[in-house]
Design goal:
By secondary structure, this protein is mostly helical. The chain is built from 3 helices and 2 strands, in the order αααββ.
Length: 95
Amino acid sequence: MAYYDYPAEHWRHLRTSEVVESVFACVRIRTDVARARLRENALYLVFKIVERLGQHWRQLNGGAALMTLLLTGTRFRDGMLVEHPARRAEVPMAA
């Protein structure tokens, strides 16, 4: 994921270009291999750690409207909204 593929409002929240890695940095520190031998135990442990860490996260700038755009697959380039190809009005070809 590229830093500039996110809306400009979100840039101040991004501390790394590897978003998933930053979330699981604390998980790696707090997990013990001996306790996570079963897949279910490991998933439960990771879920609970991320859930607890998420209580202290602040909301992103831009609010719910911007998150809706992101979740529907809208693209951003250099922090600016790029027109979604599927939403572009199709022009009928002249016969």
